[in-house]
Amino acid sequence: MDSTGIVIGFWVLSAITVVSSLLVLVARNLMHALAFLVLAFLGMAGLFITLSADFVAVAQVLIYAGSISVLMVFAVMLTPLASRDNGNSLYVLPGVVAGLGIASLVAFVAVDTEWAERTGAALAESDFASTVGEVGRLLLGRYVLAFEVASVLLLIGLLGAIVLVQERRRAATQSPDEAADTGARDGGAL
Amino acid sequence: MASHAFEVDQTGTGSAEPFVLNIGPQHPSTHGVFRLRVVMDGEIIRDLDMIVGYLHRSMEKLAEERTYTQNIPFTDRADYLAAMTGNLGLALAVERMTGVESPDRAEYLRVIFSELQRIASHAMANGTLVSDAGAWQTPLLYMFREREKILDLFEMTCGARLTTNYMRIGGVAFEPPAEFWPALQELLDELPERTDEYAQLLVDNEIFLARTRNVGIISAEDAINASLTGPALRGSGVPWDLRKAEPYCGYENFDFDIPVGKVGDVYDRFMVRMEEVKQSVHIIRQAVEQIPPGPHKNDIPLALRPEPGEIYSRIESPRGEIGFYLVSDGTPAPYRFHLRSPALINLSLLRELGEGASLPDAVVTLGSIDIVLGEIDR
Amino acid sequence: MNLPGGDEVTVTLAHYLVVSGLVFGIGTTIALSKRNAIAVLMGIELMLNAVNLTLLAFSRFSSAFPAGEEPLSGHAFVVFVLTVAAAEAAIALAMAVLLYRRRETVDLDRVNLMRW
Amino acid sequence: MSEQPLQAPIRRPATPMLRQIEDRPGLKEMALGVPFGLKVIGAIMGLGALVLMAAVGYLVVDGRLDGQWYDVRDLGHAVAGLRDWLDGEGVDHRLTWLITGALGGLAIMSIVGGWLLIGSWVERRVIAKFQIRMGPNRTGLFGLLQPIADAVKLMTKEIIIPRGADRFLYYIPPVLVFVPAMLGWAPIPWAPNMAYMDINVGVLYVVAISSIGVLAIFLAGWSSNNHYSLLGAMRTVAMMISYEIPISLALLSVVLLTQSMQLSEIVAFQGHYHVWMIAIIPFAAFAFLFASTAEINRSPNDIGEAESEIVAGFYTEYSGMKAGLFMAVELAHAILVGALMATFFLGGYTLFGLEEWVPGYLILAAKIGAVYFLFVWLRGTLPRFRLDQLMGFAWKFLIPLGIIQAFIVAIEASVFVRVDAPAFITLGAFAVVNLASTVVMVRFWADRLGYAPAQHATKPELTNALGGLKAAQRLRS
Amino acid sequence: MLAQPVAEALERALPGMVVSSNDEWVEVAPDRVEEALRWLHDSEEFDAAQLSNLTAVDRYDHFEVVYHLQSLDLNHQIAVKALVHEHDDPVIPSAYPVYKGALLQEREVYDLMGIRFLNHPDLRRLLLWEGFPGHPLRKDWMGMVGDHTSGLAGFPYEDKDAPIRPINADNLVPGIGPGGQGH
C-alpha cells in the first residue's frame, strides 16, 4: 500500500470528522446531532484505518456507531419532551473558550514539538500488519490485570444500568402513596 | 401452556408517554372499514375505542319502504360473507309471520346451502385469522381454495357468488342444475382431508400455538353475559347452537355435534370453526342422501301482507345468532325491520379484551371474533 | 505523494494530533455548553474518540519506544477506552432516563439539587 | 340424493377458476411445439457445450489451467493477470489499483443487482406455488420481466413526504440502509483468490457493518412522524441489538474452531477437512440462521414490518422508489445472509473437491440460492412471532446456550490444536459431542424455563348437550 | 315460552312492575326496567342469562323498547317491553348493569332512535357521526314528499286500482331518495 491512499484518506476523513463534530455542536435538533455524531464516529474509524489499526477501527464501528449511538437513540426516545432540543446552556462562552483553548494548545504542542517519528521504510514496515493477534496477546499478557478490571467495570456498568432503570418497576407495584414517596425520595437523591 | 416460557413481562417497559394510534379504517387487519382508536403505552394497549359506521347504509330505514320479498337482497349485503344464512333468516322470519309454508325439498336445499355457506365463511374467518397472526397469506389462500369451489357451486345454482339472493319466502329461488350434485359430491369427498391438511400446517405449528393460546381469553360467564353467540360463545365452552336449540328447516333430523372449546382463547375459537366445518360436511352428506324430490318453491303473493303483529326470529349464522325483529302493520312493507347483528354484538367485550393486551394480541383477538363490516354497519 | 508542483506531501504525527486536538476541543465545547444531558454525553464521547486517535497515532508513528515496550500498546489502550466508553454510556444514559422520569426534564441547568 | 332435478338448468355452467389453471399447457406441450430449426440449433449448441466441457476437463486434469488468467474457476486470476498486464504496460500502479478496485466493486454491485431482479421474481413465483396461485406470468417469458416492470412502476409513482416529517433525516435512510447490504459483501470469498477485500478481521467486520443498518431503520421510523413507523423502528432496533449477541456468539464458535477471523481462512478450513461447520456446531448454525432472520426482518421474525399489525412498520410513510429501496434491501439482506451462512457454516465455495472442477463462485451462488429458498419457504409457511416472545427467545434461550456452546467449542479448539490425531477423528468426535451437548442443553434449558412443546394440540370437545353456563361447567369438569 | 307466567311471577316478586302482558310479551314499568331485568336474570326459574336482542320501535307518540331475553340452560325466550311515552327526549334506564351485551345495542338504539339510556357508561352514537341531524329510524325523521309518511301502503303491481301518485317535477325533491306511497 502506498501512501497516496493514506494521504487522501486522511484529509477527507479528517474533514468529515471535524465538520460533523462541529455540526453536532451547531445542530438544533438532537436527532440531527445524533446523526452527525454517528458520521463523526465513522470518520474516526476511517482515520483509524489510515493508522493501520484494523481491529480497533472495526471495534470502533461496532461499539460507537453500532451500540452507543443506538443507546443514545433509546435515551432520546425515552425522553420525548427533551428529544428535539439541543439548546445551549448558560455556559456557552466558557465552553467555547475552553474548547478553543484546548484545541489550540494541543495543535501548538503538536506542531511545535520535534517528535521522534518513524518515517519511510520504518513506517511502511507496520503497514497493515494483522494487529488482532498482537493486541490479543497484549491484552491477555501484559495488560491482563487491566483487562480483568475492565471486564469487571463492564459488569458493574451493566448491573448499574439495570438497577437504575428498573427502579420504576418496583415503584409501580407499590401502592400509589408509596410510589409517590419513593419517587420523591429518589428524586431528592438526584 | 405452550407459550409462556419465552414471554417477557412487558408492564412497565413503556416509559414513553402514551400515544394514540388509529388502527383503521384502512388497515390490513381490520377486515374492512373498521377503526380502532387505541391509546398505547409502548406496545401495550391502555385504552381502546371502536369506531364503526363507515359502511352504514341505513338498511333498516330503507327496509321500511320495501316489501318483504324486496328486502331479501339487503340481507345479502349485510353479512356479505354469509349471504345464504342472511337470506334464510329473513325468509324464515316472514314465513313464521305469515304462515307461508315451504316445500320439503326447499328445506333440504336450504340446509345444504346454508351449511356450504358456513364452510365458506369459516374458511374465510380462519384464513384471515392466520393471516393476522402473520402467516403471509398462505393458509388464507389454502382456505380460499375450498371457498372458491363453494362459490362456484353457488354460481352454478343462482348465478351469483357473493350476494346470492337465493332463499325466498316459501322456498328457494332455483333448483340446482344437474352438474351441481357431482360437483358437490367431489367437494364433500375432499373437504375432510383438506381440513386435516390445514391442521397439519397450523395446529401442529409451535409459532401459531404460541400466538393464539391463552390470548384473548373470554370466560363462559362473560361470553353469555355479553350476548356473544356463535363460535365466539362456543369457543368459551358454552354448548349453544340455535340449530339444536330451535331447530329450523329440519335440522332436528340431522345428526351433528356442537364443538366447544376449553379455555375460551383465540385458539379455541379457531378450532371450533375448524370442527364446525367437519360437522357441516357431515350435515350436508345427510341432506344430500335424504333430499326428497318435489317442487323447490311455493307460489306466494307478490306482496305479502302479514297480520299486524311482531316476530323475533333467529337462526344460526356462521357468526352467531342472526335475528330479525319484524313489526307488521298490515301493509306490504314492514313497519319496523331490525336485524340483530351477531358480528356487532360479539364486539361487546372488545374493550375489555383489548386493555392490557399487546398490539399483536389485540389484532389476533379481533381476527378470532370474525367481524363482517357489512353486518356491523348495515 | 507528490503534488502537481512537485512538493512532497506526507501525513505525519502532527497532522493526526491536530485533528485530535480539534475534535477534543469541539467535544469539550459540547460537553460544557449543552443543556441536554444526552448532548453532553455526545460531547464526552467525542472527547474519548479524540484521545483514541491520539493513542493510535503515537502507537503508529512514535519510534521512541524503550526496549521491551510494545508499539501496539496504544491499540490495547484504545480497547480499554472503548470498554470504559461503553460502560459509561450505558450508565449515563440510564441516569438520563431516570432523571427524565423523576424530573420530567433532562435539562442540566434545571437539575440543581446538588448545589449547596 | 334426488334422481332428476325438476327444473331444467337455465344458468350458465360454472367456470371454476382452478380448472382454468389446471388446463394450461404444460412444459411438455410447449417443448413439443418448438419449430424444427430451433431444435437443430439447440442440438448444435448442446454438442458444442459438451466439446467445450471436455476441453476444459482436459485442461484441468493436465494442470495447465492453474493460475492462468483464463482460468475461469477463479476470477481472481483474471484480475491478477489484468494487474500484471497493466504494470507491464507501464501504467502507474495507483491507477491499476484504482481500476481493479472499481472492477471488483462493480462486480459486487452487479451481482447484488442481478440477484435483486431474479430473487424477487423467484420469491414471488415460489410463494405463488406455495399458495396455489400462478404468480406473475404476464410480463415477458414466465413473467421474468416483472421485477423491471415493478421498478418502473415504483419509479414513476409520486414521492409523498408526510407533513411534519423531518425532511433532512427522511431522505437519508433509503440510501443508508443499502450501505451495509453492499459493504457486507466485501470480505466474502467467491473462490480461493476471489475476495474483494480479504481483511483479517472479516468476522468482526461483518458484525460491525450489520450494526450500521440499525441506525438507518431507526432514522426512517423516527423521521416519518408516524406512530406505525416509530413502533416498527423501535421493534426493529430492539430486535437487532438483541440478536446481534447470538450472532456474535455463533460466529465466536466458528472463529475459535478455525483459529481465524479471516473469511477465506474459515472457508479454507472447511475445504481442507472436507467438513461443513454446520455439522460440527449445529447449534451455532441454527442460532446464526434464526438470529439473522430477526436481524434482517424476514419471516417468521418480521415483526418490524408486521403487515397485519403496524402496516409496513418503519417504512409505512415511504412511497415510490423509496419504499421500493426498502423492499429491495430486504432481499439484498436475505442473499447477504445466505452468503454469510454459506461461508461460515456450509463450506463457502468448496463442495468436497468439486471446486477443483466447477467454478467456486457458482458453488457459492448455488448455496446462497439454497439458503434464499429456505427463507422464501419460511416466509410462505410460518406465522409471525410476537415481539416479547422473540426478545425472550434471544435473551433467555439463544444467549445463555450460545455462551455454553462457545465454552464447549473453546475446549474443543484447544484440544484440536494440541492433540495430534487425524482430523476426521477429532472433528467427528467434536460433531458428536456438540450434537449431544446441544440436545442436552436444549432439553434441560427448556425444562428449566417451563417450556413444553405442544405436540398434541387440544381439539374442541364434541357434545350433543345443549345449554348455558351450567352445561359449560358440566362439560369442563 | 308464554309470557303470562313470567308476568305473574314478576308481579309477585316486584309489585307494580308489570304494566300489561299477553302471550307474547310482558310490558314493564319503564323506569324500573333495570330492576325487572335483574330479577329475571337472577331468578332460578327463568334464568334469563343472555340479552339476546335489544331494539326499539317508534309508534309516533311513544317508543317501545324491546328486550329479548334468552335462557341458555332452560332454552326459552322471554320478550320484555317498556313503553316510553315521551317522544321528544325519551329516557329509559340502561340494561348495561345487568347485561354487558347491552353496550353496543343501546348505543345503536340511541343513535338511530334517539332514546337515552341512563347509567350507560359510554352513550355515544355508534353508526352515524357525531353531529348527524336527528335520529333516522324515527318515523318523523325527515319530511317526506308532500304529506306522505314513511312506509309502503300499497303495492302498485298488485293494487292496480289504487291511486298512484303522478310523478312530476313538483313531487321530486332531490336528495331525499325513495319514499312516498306507491310510486
SSE layout and pairing:
The complex is a heteropentamer of chains A (190), B (378), C (116), D (477) and E (183).
Chain A: H1 3-26, H2 30-50, H3 54-78, H4 92-112, H5 120-125, H6 132-140, H7 144-173, H8 176-189
Helix pairs in contact in A: 1-2, 2-3, 7-8
Chain B: E1 19-23, E2 35-41, E3 44-51, H1 59-63, H2 72-78, H3 83-98, H4 104-132, H5 138-158, E4 167-168, E5 171-172, H6 180-203, H7 206-212, H8 220-225, H9 231-235, H10 242-245, E6 258-260, H11 266-290, E7 309-317, E8 320-328, E9 336-340, H12 342-345, H13 350-354, H14 359-369, H15 373-377
Antiparallel strand pairs in B: 1-2, 2-3, 4-5, 7-8, 8-9
Helix pairs in contact in B: 2-3, 3-4, 4-5, 4-11, 4-14, 5-6, 6-11, 11-14
Chain E: H1 3-13, E1 18-21, E2 25-28, H2 33-42, E3 50-58, E4 63-71, E5 76-84, E6 91-93, H3 102-113, E7 116-118
Summarize the structure.
Chain B is an alpha+beta fold and 378 residues long. Chain B has helices spanning 59-63, 72-78, 83-98, 104-132, 138-158, 180-203, 206-212, 220-225, 231-235, 242-245, 266-290, 342-345, 350-354, 359-369, 373-377; strands at 19-23, 35-41, 44-51, 167-168, 171-172, 258-260, 309-317, 320-328, 336-340.
Count of separate structural domains of chain C = 1
CATH T-level topology of the largest domain in chain E: Beta Polymerase, domain 2
Query: What CATH architecture of the largest domain in chain E would you give?
Result: 2-Layer Sandwich
Poorly predicted regions of chain C are none
Instruction: Tell me the distance between the termini of chain E.
Output: 41 Å
Kindly report the greatest chain-chain contact and the residue count on each side. Answer: A-C, 104 and 85 residues
Class from helix and strand fractions of chain C: mainly alpha
Helix content class of chain E = 10-25%
How many H/I helices of chain E?
3
Low-confidence parts of chain E lasting 5 or more residues at pLDDT below 50?
A: 164-183
CATH level-1 class of the largest domain in chain E: Alpha Beta
| Record field, number of beta strands of chain E | 7
Multimeric state:
heteropentamer
What sort of overall outline of chain C do the alpha carbons produce when their principal axes are compared? Answer: elongated
Over all CA atoms, what is the radius of gyration of chain E? 20 Å
Report the sheet-strand fraction of chain E. 15-25%
Strand content of chain C: under 5%
Tell me what you see in this structure.
The complex is a heteropentamer of chains A (190), B (378), C (116), D (477) and E (183). Chain A is built from 8 helices and no strands. Chain A is mainly alpha-helical. Chain A folds into 2 domains: 1-85 and 122-130, Four Helix Bundle (Hemerythrin (Met), subunit A), CATH 1.20.120; 143-190, no CATH class. Chain A is globular, with a radius of gyration of 22 Å. Chain B has 378 residues and is of the alpha+beta class. Chain B has one domain (56-377): Cytochrome-c3 Hydrogenase, chain B (Orthogonal Bundle), CATH 1.10.645. Chain B has helices spanning 59-63, 72-78, 83-98, 104-132, 138-158, 180-203, 206-212, 220-225, 231-235, 242-245, 266-290, 342-345, 350-354, 359-369, 373-377; strands at 19-23, 35-41, 44-51, 167-168, 171-172, 258-260, 309-317, 320-328, 336-340. Chain B has a 3-stranded antiparallel beta sheet with strand order 1-2-3. In chain B, strands 7-8-9 form a 3-stranded antiparallel beta sheet. In chain B, a hairpin with a 7-residue loop joins strand 8 (320-328) and strand 9 (336-340). Chain B is globular, with a radius of gyration of 21 Å. Chain C has 116 residues and is mostly helical. Chain C has one domain: Helix Hairpins, CATH 1.10.287. Chain C contains 3 helices and no strands. Chain C has helices at residues 13-33, 37-61, 73-103. Chain E is an alpha/beta fold. Chain E has 2 domains: 3-118, Beta Polymerase, domain 2 (2-Layer Sandwich), CATH 3.30.460; 142-183, no CATH class. Chain E is 18% helix and 22% strand. In chain E, a hairpin with a 4-residue loop joins strand 4 (63-71) and strand 5. Chains in contact: A-B, A-C, A-D, B-D, B-E, D-E. Strand 6 of chain B pairs antiparallel with strand 1 of chain D.
